[in-house]
Amino acid sequence: MKRIDGREGGGQLVRLAVALAAIEGVPVRIDNVRGGRDEPGLRAQHVAALQTVGTLTDADSEGVEVGSETVVFRPGPILGGDVEIEVGTAGSIPLVFDTVLPLAMATETPFTVRATGGTDVKWSPPIGYHRFVKFPFLQRFGLAAEIDVERRGFYPRDGGLATLKVSPSDVAPINCQERGELKGVTIHSIATADLQEAEVSKRQVNGARDALESEIDVPISTRSESVQSHSTGTVVLVVAKYEHSLAGFDALGEPGWPAEDVGKAAAQELRRFHHATGAVDRHLADQLLPFLARAGGGITTPTLTDHVRSSRALLETFGYEVDVQTDSERTRISTGLT
């Protein structure tokens, strides 16, 4: 049994440990779960993620409940099939999907996960990041997965509904060390229907476009949408399409924050990335680690995050060698399978 200290790394460490246990077919024990946080132990979205992997692998588990600081997870073979899970309390659906997605590299049977909860919430990538950045990027290397979004869910109420569809995937080595030329930018802006009269979605687009047009000389396309949701909310996602890569930058609207400034905030993140030299943004770098470990390859990113550090140590516990080299311009992450 693999034994993991979960004090550092937060919920991502727990989710990744369970995903790796399922892929490798080995049991894992995680102590001090989120021990470094003000509220240690599992939260509702972590429980939902672990329950989903547990259902897909018919796992024998202990401590998979809110507040638990020790988790034991003994997976069986990946069964496939259909799973329905309620994250609740506007917990993050994308983080649940993140947990089970690496199983695509080990399953022999397709599976789907239909989840209710938050699609666009704090401390989590918005669902659009997965749909327009992460999944298209990984599909280039052989990932067979897609997301259908039926309803948006913003904080504080849940009610978002999305389905992840996964097929067995032979993922090729993920080599993306140079992004190439910037080919275009797309601004995706969404606001709930109760904000339509104030044209919040369009104003977010305007703020993002105004921040980009003076510095980025490529076509900028826009998508503005009004949606139904149980809670008022907005989100803007700015996606940069490079010759060899994709990058995404987002911002969630908040009361008192002008819509134009929400769009501008996401656009400024893109501007900072564009003036750096990494091939993938820092969030994508974090999320690619299990795929790099399993399939091999190498990527570059502007900065080395704490998530990369903690995930690297975890991957090495499972026998994967992950090399990280940082200089003044960027960080290179690669595996022994390059």
Structural write-up:
It comes from Halodesulfurarchaeum formicicum. It is an enzyme of class 6 (ligase). The protein is built from eight helices and 16 strands. By secondary structure, it is an alpha/beta fold. The mean pLDDT is 94. The two termini are 28 Å apart. The strands form four sheets. It has a four-stranded mixed β-sheet, covered by helices on one side. It has a four-stranded mixed β-sheet with strand order 5-6-8-7, with helices on one face. 32% of the residues lie in helices and 28% in strands. It has two domains: 2-176 and 280-322, UDP-n-acetylglucosamine1-carboxyvinyl-transferase, Chain (Alpha-beta prism); 182-275, RNA 3'-terminal phosphate cyclase, insert domain (Dihydrodipicolinate Reductase, domain 2, 2-Layer Sandwich).
Order of helices and strands: EHEHEEEHEHEEEEHEEEHHEHEE
**Which percent range describes the beta-strand content?**
25-35%
Q: C-alpha Rg, in Å? A: 19 Å
Structure summary, number of beta strands = 16
Question: What's the total helix number?
Answer: 8
- Provide the number of structural domains: 2
Kindly report the average pLDDT value: 94
Q: Can you tell me the overall shape? A: globular
Share in helix = 25-40%
With strands numbered from the N-terminus, the spatial order across the biggest sheet is: 1-2-4-3
Q: What is the level-2 CATH architecture name of the largest domain?
A: Alpha-beta prism
Structural class: alpha/beta
Distance between the termini: 28 Å
Q: In the CATH hierarchy, what is the superfamily of the largest domain?
A: RNA 3'-terminal phosphate cyclase domain
Regarding CATH, which class of the largest domain?
Alpha Beta
CATH topology of the largest domain: UDP-n-acetylglucosamine1-carboxyvinyl-transferase, Chain
Low-confidence stretches: none
Largest sheet: 4 strands, mixed
Organism: Halodesulfurarchaeum formicicum
Catalytic activity: a 3'-end 3'-phospho-ribonucleotide-RNA + ATP = a 3'-end 2',3'-cyclophospho-ribonucleotide-RNA + AMP + diphosphate
Binding site for ATP: 98, 283-287
Protein name: RNA 3'-terminal phosphate cyclase
